[in-house]
């Protein structure tokens, strides 16, 4: 929770609250002449609550709020957040997943649930995939873009705060039951979803409605898929943009998402409150990926025909991600003092039971003639033998299981005192926090090969014995797919111990412990129309990373410790120009620790080649400056403009350090390194309005628009062994889009609600392919998604709804250097939903 626990109000701030109260009274009076439903549900009500919270915040903040029937406007937390200023999402298989703030990559942000940090399920990331959280479990989502000293300082773009439903969010009994079916255009599959939420207040002892219970459950089983063609960036630009290989892939996925939350609040008197927040979410993918691959004997250009080898591959694995969160806390007011305490436990895990990581069927007819056309979405020109399963023989099967666990435990105490300085309201707040985080990964790999030595004949290994029929792809003729069950049956009778891959298994196992101790002090002072918040935060970090290295075939332990300290001052100012307009300014400091993939303690040294992580990396440090103005106007109306600047030190990128330090004699030595400086600056604009003063039916119109313009630059360098000197260039920060924008046009009355929304983000640098040659950089192309939703109240408590997502069938496209050269192209198709909601509120 950010800012003072009980905001102090001077004369200027009282005027603001009075204006808000008058506005609210006017809306209540207007409601008496209309059906009551329109005032408590719908798009305008959602936006009104969000704007009110944003207006009262001590930080620059954007909010998405559930409406009275307990619904966020989208399927999961990530997709709900993409509608607010400065935010966009990374999509996986067409579904919103990771959140970017102000164009900056998702690993530079942090996520909390009910005030406690959410760890990351993936083994190499800090970014939290918010698609694991069903929207039904969430009451509100906030993005804090300027941190106050009482907040963890571990975000550059913003801190995403997830708040679950409380029983005190509704005055009386509340429940909402939802059932829907969705249709995926790509797979022609229909999928079910059911959810529900409940809350009520009860009287304990002599109190009245002093105990509240809230619960929510959600379950969805979705079948969907995608079509893909990619080169992996295998272009040789020194030989006229010649291509080395092409892969076509088909994904078929069954995704089961389930979640539950149970929350308790107890307020025995007006000065005391105790709460317990619990949340559990489970996200399971059962994925089958078929691939057909052509490897050219020599790199060739579009339109040429040359010799090539053909391979068909299969992946068939389950992947289950879980997030568990438990928060116990309370608050006690004692005169001018307020004591708050909270303990949190959260765990994220990713488990993949034993499955086929890759099964390779190699062409057994020798080299074939092949070519391609279209460098953006390559199409093969190849003979019929490529599509004949009899042309392939099973050569290798990679069998894997993996478990990743990320656990965070923390406890914090805050003490606040209200007082006056020369008749000016003031508030002093100080406290401390201790957090203990552990990330561990356990990977086991078996590589089955040399099947002839196990007594199998060429006839038994022929793909005709494994085929599952031709694969249906929307990107053209694909050919045969392999049966996962047939592959499992073949290797099931073999002695697995003789195929255990010790190097791949041991090198990827690690344990990383990260201990953070923090303390802060801050003071809020109201000087008439001006509020000033000043303070400083101290954070100390201790890192212990343990893994395994391999030097010329010999295993050795890799144990590294690292520690650092940061003093992080901050200054916020809010000035009320008038009852509806305020100026905000902030100077803050933040520290973003390296991802776990960058801190990876394992290494492989093989002759004159090396690849390793870097647990000794310094964290990214940033000084952040924000200035802006907000003006609030009428029903769900606001306009705002903010400029921001971030001065960053120690940003991190991947480089080849061969020829330097301990790697003077190496040809290749890839690792993560700290850069010197980087800069980010931008402009954020937002406008929203309910046009309720227009004549009917135009008084139901609602417009919500925002856009963010961001620029960044960072210097990367690498030792050039040919020149014997450092060389480098300037890049944008990876993951940073120059332009992000949202436009939503809505209309509603007491029965019907319509919404057409669009979400845009411009292209961005995904990965530096070669520090010394920008032609090999991976860029993600711009994307524009358009969605439509409609709902209608059949009765006061029964609502029918329809949704259409990705109406324009937007694709995901990654290119190498120039838009002409494919690295990855993927398309998903639109999804349509219809359902019913029964509610009591």
Automatic annotation (TrEMBL):
Q: Which family does it belong to?
A: Belongs to the TonB-dependent receptor family.
TonB-dependent receptor plug domain boundaries: 54-159
| Protein's cellular compartments | Cell outer membrane
Q: Which residues form the signal peptide?
A: 1-30
Q: What is its main location?
A: membrane
InterPro entries assigned to the protein according to its UniProt record, in alphabetical order: Beta-barrel_TonB, Beta-barrel_TonB_sf, Plug_dom, Plug_dom_sf, TonB-dep_rcpt-like, TonB_rcpt_bac
Keyword Transport annotated = yes
A Pfam family the protein falls into: TonB_dep_Rec_b-barrel
Tell me which NCBIfam families the record gives.
Answer: TonB-Xanth-Caul (TIGR01782)
The entry's protein name is: TonB-dependent receptor
Gene Ontology CC terms: cell outer membrane
Keywords assigned by UniProt, alphabetized: Cell outer membrane, Membrane, Receptor, Signal, TonB box, Transmembrane, Transmembrane beta strand, Transport
Q: Where is the TonB-dependent receptor-like beta-barrel domain?
A: 366-807
Membrane-protein topology? Multi-pass membrane protein
Q: Where are the transmembrane segments?
A: none
């Amino acid at each position: 929770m950010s800012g003072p626990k009980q905001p102090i109000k001077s004369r200027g701030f009282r005027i603001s609250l009075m204006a808000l109260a008058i506005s609210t009274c006017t809306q209540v009076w207007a409601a008496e002449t209309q059906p009551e439903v329109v005032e408590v549900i719908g798009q305008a009500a959602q936006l009104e609550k969000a704007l009110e919270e944003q207006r009262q915040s001590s930080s620059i903040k954007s909010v998405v709020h559930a409406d009275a029937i307990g619904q966020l406007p989208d399927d999961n937390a990530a997709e709900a957040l993409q509608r607010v200023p400065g935010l966009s999402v990374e999509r996986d298989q067409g579904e919103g997943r990771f959140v970017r703030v102000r164009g900056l990559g998702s690993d530079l942000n942090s996520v909390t649930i009910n005030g406690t940090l959410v760890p990351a399920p993936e083994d190499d990331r800090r970014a939290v995939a918010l698609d694991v959280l069903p929207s039904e479990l969430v009451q509100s989502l906030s993005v804090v873009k300027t941190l106050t000293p009482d907040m963890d300082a571990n975000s550059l773009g913003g801190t995403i705060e997830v708040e679950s439903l409380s029983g005190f969010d509704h005055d009386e009994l509340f429940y909402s039951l939802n059932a829907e079916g969705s249709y995926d255009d790509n797979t022609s599959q229909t999928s079910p979803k059911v959810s529900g939420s409940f809350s009520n207040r009860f009287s304990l002892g002599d109190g009245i409605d002093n105990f509240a219970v809230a619960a929510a459950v959600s379950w969805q089983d979705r079948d969907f898929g995608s079509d893909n063609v990619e080169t992996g960036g295998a272009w040789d630009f020194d030989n006229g943009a010649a291509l080395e290989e092409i892969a076509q892939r088909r994904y078929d996925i069954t995704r089961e998402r389930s979640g539950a939350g149970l929350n308790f609040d107890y307020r025995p008197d007006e000065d005391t409150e105790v709460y317990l927040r619990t949340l559990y979410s489970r996200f399971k993918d059962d994925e089958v990926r078929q691939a057909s691959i052509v490897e050219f004997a020599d790199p060739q250009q579009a339109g040429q025909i040359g010799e090539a080898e053909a391979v068909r591959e299969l992946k068939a694995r389950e992947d289950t991600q879980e997030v568990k969160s438990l928060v116990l806390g309370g608050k006690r007011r004692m005169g001018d003092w307020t004591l708050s305490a909270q303990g949190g436990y959260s765990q994220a895990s990713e488990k993949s039971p034993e499955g086929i990581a890759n099964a390779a069927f190699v062409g057994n007819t020798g080299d074939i003639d092949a070519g391609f056309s279209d460098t953006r979405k390559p199409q093969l020109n190849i003979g019929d033998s490529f599509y004949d399963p009899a042309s392939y023989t099973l050569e290798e099967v990679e069998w894997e299981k993996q478990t990743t666990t990320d656990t965070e435990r923390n406890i914090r105490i805050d003490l606040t005192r209200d007082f006056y300085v020369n008749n000016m309201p003031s508030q002093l707040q100080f406290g401390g926090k201790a957090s203990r985080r552990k990330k561990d990964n356990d990977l086991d790999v078996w590589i089955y090969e040399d099947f002839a030595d196990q007594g199998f004949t060429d006839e038994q290994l022929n793909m005709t014995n494994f085929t599952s029929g031709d694969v249906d792809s929307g990107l053209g003729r694909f050919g045969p797919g392999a049966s996962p069950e047939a592959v499992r049956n073949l290797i099931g009778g073999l002695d697995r111990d003789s195929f255990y891959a010790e190097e791949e298994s041991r090198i990827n196992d690690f344990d990383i412990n990260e201990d953070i101790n923090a303390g802060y002090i801050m003071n809020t002072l109201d000087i008439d129309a001006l509020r000033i918040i000043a303070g400083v935060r101290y954070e100390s970090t201790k890192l212990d990373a343990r893994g395994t290295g391999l030097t010329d075939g010999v295993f050795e332990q890799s144990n590294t410790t690292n520690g650092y300290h940061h003093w992080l001052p901050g200054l916020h100012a809010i000035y009320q120009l008038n009852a509806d307009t305020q100026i905000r300014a902030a100077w803050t400091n933040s520290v973003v620790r390296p991802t776990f993939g960058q801190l990876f303690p394992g290494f492989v040294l093989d002759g004159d080649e090396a690849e390793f992580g870097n647990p000794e990396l310094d964290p990214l440090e940033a000084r952040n400056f924000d200035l802006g103005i907000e003006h609030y106007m009428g029903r769900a109306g606001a306009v705002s403009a903010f400029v921001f600047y971030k001065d960053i030190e120690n940003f991190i990128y991947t480089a080849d350090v061969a020829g330097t330090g301990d790697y003077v004699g190496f040809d290749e030595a890839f690792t993560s390194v700290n850069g010197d400086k980087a800069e980010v600056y931008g402009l954020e604009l937002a406008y929203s309005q309910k046009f309720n003063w227009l004549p009917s039916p135009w008084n139901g119109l609602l417009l919500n628009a925002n856009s963010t313009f961001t620029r960044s630059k960072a210097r990367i360098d690498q030792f050039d062994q040919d020149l014997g000197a450092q060389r480098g260039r300037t890049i944008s920060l990876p993951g940073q889009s120059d332009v992000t924008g949202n436009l939503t046009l809505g209309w509603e009355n007491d029965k019907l609600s319509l919404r057409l929304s669009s979400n845009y983000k411009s292209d961005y640098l995904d990965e530096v392919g070669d520090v010394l040659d920008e032609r090999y950089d991976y860029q993600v192309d711009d994307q524009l998604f358009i969605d439509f939703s409609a709902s209608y109240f059949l009765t006061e408590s029964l609502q029918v709804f329809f949704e259409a997502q990705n109406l324009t069938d937007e694709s995901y496209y990654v290119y190498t250097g120039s838009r002409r050269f494919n690295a990855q192209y993927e398309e998903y198709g639109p999804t349509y939903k219809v359902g019913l909601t029964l509610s009591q509120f």
